[in-house]
Amino acid sequence: MAVATADSAVPATSRQTRPKRLVTAxxxxxLLAIFLFAVFPFYWMVAxxxxxxxxxxxxxxxxxxxxxxxxxxxxxxxxxxxxxLINSIIIAVSTTxxxxxxxxxxxxxxxxxxxxxxxxxxFWFITNRMLSPIVVxxxxxxxxxxxxxxxxxxxxxxxxxxxNLPIVVWICTDQFRGVPKDLDEAARLAxxxxxxxxxxxxxxxxxxxxxxxxxxxxxxxxxxxxxxxxLTRNAARTAPVAATSFMSGYDLPWxxxxxxxxxxxxxxxxxxxxxxxxLVQGLTMGAVK
Length: 289
Hints:
single chain; 289 residues; mainly alpha; 75% helix; globular; disordered N terminus
């Protein structure tokens, strides 16, 4: 009886492990498909930027070719894309610094203190980002023209700050709520001021959320096209607006277009890699409780 029981246990174990292996294999196939789907457009953009116009338009596509940097030299020094990239860096960095600098104290106050009209203020923050930007494009253009701010950096910084500040407050408020209040009370008993508690205790513990909000602010400011197209001309023209300048006529320079796209994407990738550690922590925080 004992032998029969042992024999019957082996197939049962095999039947239990086989589905797990199948699920693991299908997971790998799915992850590989998603990876290729996400990475292939970026590969195609970079590869096309290193081809000549004839190689870029060849049919069937040329997979093996000699890489050339002619398109990058053309867009940087003859198409004035370099000044547009500098404008984008100035506007995106300024907006991100201001949004984080103003948003984190506001988020800390919403998470820690009770005051009049707090619920109404919180409702305004969480619903502000739901407003479609096109709805207020005309009023903002008229105000910018009235104050003489058309084609300046400050007008885009103010507009982007209006849309990014609610995101920073929204994300960071939840992060500060996750910091135990006992730490604040212990610091108060030790003689720490409110600012010291915020700066040296709460802010470092909420850094993953601050990093995530900073990334969102930077990416939105860097990629935004609508307001940059409406409110700038030449002096404050950003990189996405410069990329649209190639879209004219019938002879599209695909190599230069893809080189410009690569130069626009590269700073965002570098910035995301720099803060990737905090990004993962911030996105997964609160997923498991």
